[in-house]
């Protein structure tokens, strides 16, 4: 069945629409949306395909979908706003705002370490269940009690799923608000349809995520010591549904707050978030944004299985996985190909979301769209 495509784009971005259609015709796309703003003006806003695997529900311009790690910079931004406000410093110990975290050798871990994947807790040691996953206090208490897998600040290991509880709890400790509430306060004035914890009224807008089979291991390896295979597996599968496997299309998952992994939104919501970042002082000061989008952490990552580098929540563009041709571009990919980024030199913001999850971050689909956008400028 041919995928229906709706929306609009400026005439000069016709090649972008062609590639968006080719994603469905040639590259296996099921449902997706794309939004591009240049100089604050929408030049591409497309949606197409299906919100479910059986092709019964059309994808519309307000369809929400899980965008995975594309949400990491969003929870980081909630924390960075508190740094901008002078309520906490980047090099303050995490324990200064979250005293329970400062145990078992994590006393030296700083806010900066947390934001750039150097805090030492990419996995939780205590065995957890999916019932625990829905309880913020249980998850953050288990994280605080975890003995670090390495000395904080000594190396870089991608905090795949713990990142959201780590940074989100720091936000809660400083403000008293859960990340989802802070996000509504940020996103509302921006007109950005992005969520941690989808409201009851908005659940019907959610697209089903179509995952390749990815079952949890029958038994997790022991959590003692610094064994990297245990660290990696526990980072993905403790609790079993931490990476969304087996729970992604449930109401519990959609309404929970797992800010590293279960952010939901539209492509336009992501693009508007990045567009606002390009306006100095609107979301973050120019000085702090510049620091947050330059490399803070780099090196071999056993979780990603490759050399990686990160800013403070953001991925600075890199030649292996570029956002575009300009060196100051920054953003974040998500599992399966979702991506949001900003390019200060082109004054461009980009949001792409989809529901057919394919391995890793960059795909032929998002690459074709990004290349077509830059080819149209």
List the helices and strands and how they pair.
Blueprint: E1 5-9, H1 14-26, E2 31-38, E3 41-49, E4 65-66, H2 72-84, H3 111-115, H4 130-133, H5 136-145, H6 162-175, H7 179-190, E5 194-195, H8 228-237, H9 251-255, E6 264-265, H10 267-277, H11 286-292, E7 297-301, E8 306-310, E9 315-316, E10 330-333, E11 339-343, E12 348-354, H12 364-376
Antiparallel strand pairs: 1-3, 2-3, 2-12, 4-6, 5-6, 7-8, 9-10, 10-11, 11-12
Helix pairs in contact: 1-12, 2-6, 5-6
Tell me about this structure.
With 377 residues, the chain is α+β, with helices and mostly antiparallel strands. It has a domain at 5-68 and 195-208 and 259-376: Beta-lactamase, CATH 3.40.710. The protein is 31% helix and 15% strand. The protein is built from twelve helices and twelve strands. Strands 1-3-2-12-11-10-9 form a seven-stranded antiparallel beta sheet, with helices on both faces. Strand 10 (330-333) and strand 11 form a beta hairpin. Helix 1 (14-26) runs antiparallel to helix 12 (364-376), helix 2 (72-84) runs parallel beside helix 6 and helix 5 (136-145) packs across helix 6 (162-175).
CATH superfamily of the domain at 5-68 and 195-208 and 259-376: DD-peptidase/beta-lactamase superfamily
Query: Which strand order spans the largest sheet, edge to edge or round the barrel?
Result: 1-3-2-12-11-10-9
Gyration radius (Cα, Å) is 19 Å
Largest sheet: 7 strands, antiparallel
Distance between the termini: 33 Å
CATH class of the domain at 5-68 and 195-208 and 259-376: Alpha Beta
Residue share in helices? 25-40%
Discrete helix count: 12
Strand content: 5-15%
- Total beta strand runs: 12
Give the CATH topology of the domain at 5-68 and 195-208 and 259-376. Answer: Beta-lactamase
CATH architecture label of the domain at 5-68 and 195-208 and 259-376: 3-Layer(aba) Sandwich
